[in-house]
Protein 1
Amino acid sequence: MTGIGAGLLLQLGLGALAVVTALLAAPSLRSRAGGILCTLIAVTGFITGLAAMLGATGGLLIPVALPMDPLLLAPDRLGGLFMLIVSGVGILVSIYSMSSTSGPDASRTAWVAMPVFLVGMQLVPAATDSVSFLLAWEIMTLGSTVLLLADHASRASVASAGIWYSAMSQLSFFFILAGFAVLAAASGGTSFSNLQAIEPGSAAANVAFVLLLLGFGGKAELVPLHVWVPRVLPEAPSHVSAAMSGAMVKIGVYGGLLVCVRLLPDGPAWWGIAIMLVGGASALYGILQASVSSDLKVLLAYSTTENMGLVFLGLGASMLLRGYDATAAADAALVAALLLAVSHAAFKSTLFLGAGAIIHATGERNLDRLGGLGARMPVTAVAFGIASLGAAAIPITSGFVAEWMLLQSLIHGGRQGGAVVSIAASVAMPIAVAVIALTAGLALLTFVKAYGIAFLARPRSVEAADAREVPSLMRISLALGALSVLALGLLPGPIAALVATTVSSDPTAAVQTVGLGGVSLPGIGAVLDPIMLVVLSALVAIPVIVAIIVSARRHPHRTVDLPWGGGGSRARPRMQYTATSYAEPLVRVFDDVLKPSRDVQVTHVAESRYLVEHVRVEQTVSDVIETRLYRPVLNLFQRYGKAARHVANGSIHRYLTYSFVALLIVLIVVSL
Amino acid sequence: MFETFFPQLIGLCTGALLLTSALMVWRHSLLASIRLLALQGVALAALVAVIGIAEGESELGLVSLLILSVKGIGLPWVLAYQSKASIKQIQESTRLNPTAALLAVTLLSILSYVVVSRVFGLGDSSTGHAAPIGLAMVLIGFLLLISRRRARSQLIGFLVLDNGIATTTFLTSGGVPILLEFAVSLDVLLVVLILHVFTGRMRTKFGGTAVDQLRELHD
Amino acid sequence: MSAIIIALVQVVLFVFLAPLLMGVIRQVRATIEGRAGAGIWQPWRDLRKLLAKNPVRGTDSSWMLRVGPVALVVSSLLLCVLLPLVGTIPFALIPSDLFVIVSIMLIGVVALALVGLDGGTAFGGMGSSRHMTVAALVEPTLLLSVYAFSIPAGTSTLSVIVETRLLSPELIISPVSVLALVALSIAIMAETARLPIDNPGTHLEVTMLHEAMTLEASGRDLAWLEVGSWLKLAALLGLVSNLIVPWGIVTDFSTLGLLIGVVSIAVKVLVLGVLLSVGEIFLAKVRLFQVPELLAGSFALAFLAVTASYLVA
């Protein structure tokens, strides 16, 4: 048995051990024991993934009696990369969740589901045939659903989220199953090496592409299949949201890459354009919804849609460019998409864990009731701040490098050697750049809002004023997350070069390391060295800081209650801008897209209609796609459901009769 | 010397044409639209003059002067024939929100580029490459016709459309015979005059020329 | 080595030039409006005054009030280091790449917005919110307009773009470049809070953007905020002037060339500042909710510039 196989086997064993431990351990020990075992699973996965990504081969063969290709778990380089992402998030989440000692987070159900979820996610990228892929996929979905529902007893909204999640997961699974079935029927085998033999332009390939894109797009939170996201991620316990958004969503991305890069490369041009369209729409829609949201976890959930949209935009661009033989730009776009996925795993799981810390400390996730947490929870504030910078793609964080590379590949993709590549590319590239630019701008606003409203200024509620820093294990996990965001941003060169080996046939032509961990794209002629940037900033900052020190010695600052109070002396904390008011200009600007519903009620004083007693303003921004697209369909189903109720009245005899009749029909059809 | 700058000059003239069309969609005020229309007439005249010099045809110089006098001076003057104080206050309330209209302009320009290059081919000459601008102007003129409420603003849309047709013909065929251009210009002038008289009388009689309100006259 | 010298010269020059530029802009405006004006050295005197005061800080304000202004100044100083102002000789590992420059500028934008929020008053939040909304909507224009410039040069490195325009001046009057320049100018006006997006002369108006965020800052905190904003304006005007009139910029290092470069960029920036000031006389601030319209217009221009340069050339 090879090292990879041993790693996978060890993970399965540890997973089983964790399940047993969770079932048997005393409640006081459960979180510690479960957390340690889950951390071990994740660490094993990390090492296995790293080995696979560096090129180690081998795997785990699972013998089956059924007449089909054997189930083989053997991750290739790309699979290894995704195992690495998933397990990296897994380590953070496991450490974080160890400190929860009571409540649903520490329940037996949750600790049984956690290892199942983690192992399931690890196995999907390791699968080399569609059967084991689907099997692992279902294990992952099962684990996450149980984790989500662990808290269902105390809050009604969790149950509703659970229904949405199950329905959308099954829809995704159905599409993926159908897609693989089409491919398997056309190629005559279930293993990926068989499926690869299909001609990309054929009808079967086209149908399978659409089905698989729908399936994986649903998991990767792409518009219009994202509707579960704003319900599920906020309602799940925060470390589960972190694992879902940081890791599980990446499995959807892995699926997309599997289809577009591995199984069906060199597809027709419309595939690339379709993926770019879906990705661009998701990016814009996600960030718009995120920017106007006042619920911290809803904001993070929608921003996940945005980031995945950008990943798919990069993937689509690389497919389109590869079709026109602009290999250098295509490789750069693909590497950028992968880097974005990696960095998203780092910053988004940190952000969700930070949101969890805020909820732990205040019990609030409504930004309008937070504020002033920076002084009360310094570690959380710094970690959340660094991760926010990553999400807003500000330099020396991981998000910036990925977005920079994506933009570089796009602006150089439209033409090659002075000649226009194609009309489609020269129209698509500027639009893509514009979409990314607007997305980046709105992301900046979103995360300035999230960080500024929650951590700066004065507390807007008693809960926020009484907040205390979270326990040490949570702090460690947050610090690790923030460090990884910085590390990915400071050393993009080696990481990008490593990532390039997973997808590019000629990795050194696509990406190279320069200077101290800087990255260069030789095919495009672009260079970026974040460490040099830091050095340069330090050099220009030195005189400024010296000036400040001198000035501070001569003129120390005075602390007063409220310096200027915006001109008023009684400026109470309630008079501060809230998250809702912060996004108000944006709601107005994008009025036509967001369709907010506003309700203004003016109550007059009884004596006079000209005097106002109080004014009540209510503004809700609902998900337009949900209300316009899903509601009609759901209503239709509901009507049919009601009509079908008397067919299924709960009598066991009637159901047995149905089964019997169905069996008879099948037998008759077969004999014909 | 002229040869090196010829493509740039053609580009500058066509760029000005497109820019003025886009700005007309942008601005609400009628006076601004009329001024832009005048500017567009001047740019069109300059375009014809540049083509004339490049091809050494003195006839085109004459056409250029004609265009300058009719489209650059005559038509805008007729349209703006009203006291300055009152015309300054006329603001167009469009059917389409201006931001969406501007994005529509960009999409229309791309569409015309794609259509011309796919259907006709752009050719190698710099005039051929600029030809899609004419089509874009025609489309923008249509957009103005559709989205504006006032009769006079719609008239401006019609004139942009007409300018677009003229631009296309000059750029693709190197110009129409002077007589034809003369006749067309007179036609347009006539239409504008008639409409202007009508709108003037309607305004005195009914108080406004918003097309939606005019429809009520029909009933 | 020559890159380091040029960067050093640029920083020193612009630290000196930026307050002077503000003084000139204000003085020109005052003169045209028939006021006496405070003279072109007033910004320097203001700075000296602010630095010699004890800053007042609220009990609820966090470290952001101290770090934010410094971050803004550092980001503006980095702009002065990286942009091709005096010379076009870039650093090998951090060339004046468009996207890097924009992101460095955004560090300053974010710092200012967070300082605005940190005060814990309604005004600060209002300014911060509007500032970020404008910044978000400006970004597409900013990136696309320089994207349009980058196409003839074949790279997004600004110093190479300026060099290309120096070598083939006919590019400067090409329609693509004119469209992109107009779009870029509108974007920069919005980015540096000038008319018609924000009125730098107002205080305590309901419409203000930039001023609202700095209300709670005082003493050296305020001084750094002001210097950062001035430096940003000066550096961006320098970039625009070099795009319009690239002559005089140092491409091959020599002492005489450096001298010419310094003088020429100083003259260019000051002339552009005078033009800006004269232009602003004729402009009124547009309503806040018409700003998106203006930005959409500039975006349309930038987009047309990019597609035109792909499809025409």
Protein 2
Amino acid sequence: MTSNQKQATLNRALFAQRSFDSTQISVLSTLIHHFQEAGDYEVFISRTNRTPLRLVVTVVDGDAPYQHNLDLSTIKNPTERDCCREDADLRLHTGGVLGFYSSRGVSTFQVRIIRLGSKEKQVLLNHAEQIPAGDFFTVTPLRPGVYRVADLLNKAEMALKVVMPPLPEQGKVEKGAKAKGERPPSTYRPDQPLLVSVGKKGFDRREASLLSGQTLVFQVQSAARLRVVLEKEDEAVTSPPKKRPDKPTRAKKQS
Amino acid sequence: MADLTVAVSESAFQRLFVVLRDSIRWEAQDSTSFGPFTAGYHVKGHLEGGSVDFRSDNSVLVDELDVRWDMFQFTLGLDIPEICVGGGCIDMPWPFPDICLPRWCVFSANPDVSISPDLAAFVAQELSVAGRPVVRYYDASIPPPLIDPCGLLRDLLVNASVIDPFPDHNQWHIFLNPDFIDLDLFDFADIVGNLIENALTAAVTALLPGGWVRDLILAIIGGIADFIRWLLDIPDEIDEWLSDLFNISFGLGDLLIQLVGEFFGACVPLIRVDDPLEVLAKEISTSVLLSGSPVELVAVTVPVRNLFVRVDDVEMVVQADVGG
């Protein structure tokens, strides 16, 4: 028997992420900005020590999508600073959202959104300082354990417990029970996010629990600065099993 | 009444048949993509055994020919789809549509695994051919067709000294034209299913990192064995799926039936009779002249006309008229 395989390129950054901060976008976190009024906006996306990328976003009441998600790890930073181009890179419907995330790598990004047209520049989002009301910040923790979630502006805290999803039991699905083409039912759904509101009174709950790989969405109701830090790793699942001590040898009975 | 009659017994026919049977060897390979997986084969085989039975309805039955596989390499490749976390949507109040969240994928490139077990030891089939002898006339003056389906096969056999090349003079050819060819369907035992499933599971397992990351991936995909079955679209036993693959998707049995049918029915004659037929060979004789000087005697040939063949349950009879 011969066996060939093209090695998987593992997205290792996902498994190294232990903390999240709303002042920067890293893998497994997303910033979602809500554009509530029609107009032209410029969006600056900064990566550490690189020239920021400038995008022009036009928000209209007419025919335009309600959502764009930008994968910041795939964008190319310009070699020269762009200041004055007016043609739109993106069009959004009024009330639409622009999501910023990074699908891979260890780079962190910051976003600044300015409304164009008025005499004075109106900074709608300076991500490095705070997230404005109406926006969303999401984290998708993978490493199991207990995380401390803090809103540094509103001095609020909550606990987040991340547990491993149940492992499938081998051979649980009876042969023949599955219809052709159907995937065996799984109890684990990573695509079911949990929504938590955060406002002046803090978080809407004191603790939350997620399965590893599920997303916690913070709905920001008043400006916030969020931080999610792994405080206590769940050693039961992240450490190798401890070796059982050797049994002492039993003394032979003498006859 | 025919001028020439030759009778061939069952045992003599069996010896003729064995020579041809041993000359049949085949090699075939193919692969097909089924979306998330590819499957292919590379096979080599030959025939063994078989008993000849003359039947009173002017037919010959060659029964219980063993199909022997010298190589039966089966290649199965899986393209592992993205395994992702996150995603899903946030319900928004009307009139705004839901906000959908990005996903993060564990593999940044779709890895693939493939296995190539040789199943020759696990595949056994029998083939039976029943056919009637047919006579065809080979006219050497007619150029061969531009596309000769038998040309390649005959060239191979000639190069291997199994058969003589077609001559530069005319011949009568007697073929066994198959009425039916019966081949057992490919039937793979449980052990083959287990062999393939274990090999695939090991190959997929080798892709995954260890520790909690592995447990997380297993939770996402729902276990490797079920994941593989889902990718391969297998509702039941993997050995049944494999049999369907070879019998229906690949149609390897049809390929074999076509090969055997063309071999006996159109490409390689069982018996050849030269036309004109040499009844006395050319020779140098010293007994013709009184002086004893050598004299070259030309070969004596007679034209063969109206060659006819029939079979009863005892013998095969070839009859022909001689002369113009």
